[in-house]
Predict the structure.
Amino acid sequence: MERVKKLITVTTLRIFPFLFWFVTNAAANSSSHSPDLTNIFAPESTPAKSIFDFSMFVLAITGIIFVVVCTLLIYAVLKFRGKPGDAGSEPAQVYGSTQIELAWTVIPVLIVVVLFLATARVIHAIQDAPKPATALEVTVIGHQFWWEFRYPKLGIVTANELHIPVSDPAHPTPTFLQLLSADTDHSFWVPQLGGKTDLIPNRVNEMWMDPHRPGVFLGQCAQYCGVQHAKMLLRVSVDTPQDFQAWVHAQQQATHDDAAVIAGRRVFETTACINCHTISGTAGNGRFGPDLTHLMSRQTIASGAAENTTEKLRLWIRNPDAVKPGSLMPAMNLSDTDVDALVSYLETLH
């Protein structure tokens, strides 16, 4: 008996502080719209809200089961604990109780059926949702270790930072994503906007989201895909309709030649950079690395591993492993003069 009490006490002392920290932090995060926080308890789109509500429903059922089982267990331990006069005797045996057998058969079956029906309902609502004519279509391609975003109807190609419009319930503008992989398995997951969906070679998967408010939502590749899986980050910028149209207009503009940085463009076109990267209006037409045509419109580089600043950009070109160890971008071994010229040229790509 003393061992049981000690076990319960130790378990309580270990679990309750964690639960308190978990709940208080979740509550704090739910009231913040900081892009630096990813909070599964604050869904901001219809698919994410459906998944959250279903999760809370399952948690409630399993929580009730947990409480009932623990209560019966504690009752049995306390009620039927060994007594000095019970040595060598057996408790009363129950055989052939139809009521007990029905209870432990029917109740679990009903619980499983309820959970199955609820799961099927949520899956159907998310996967079979109709695509309205106003929907935005984006093709997402997972690479080691970055994200490529293509807007087929808008003629836009960008990387790592996905821009989509907010969806007004009165005038819904959901975003439907077509998910592809260029190499190995990846997984697209932005917890506040939708569930985790895998990107598998030679297979097309789909998902959709309809953000309810503007903001920046952080995501992550949720499938181990190699050395830099942990730094295969992504940012989803949910813009107002006006801001999204302004972003689209800027992305559709061609690059302008600047005589002051022509030396940097020459460095780009005469090195191996053009084998991997594309810049509109240049000889660069590579597909192994991100499209750099509007590089400076992005807040981060290296798939979210570093801020898009002059210093980080210079370091990324000179020594990629210093920013993202294990990345597939090679060090070009350029001279200081060439690095400075190339960075100056890249900084004009808005």
Summary: The radius of gyration is 28 Å.
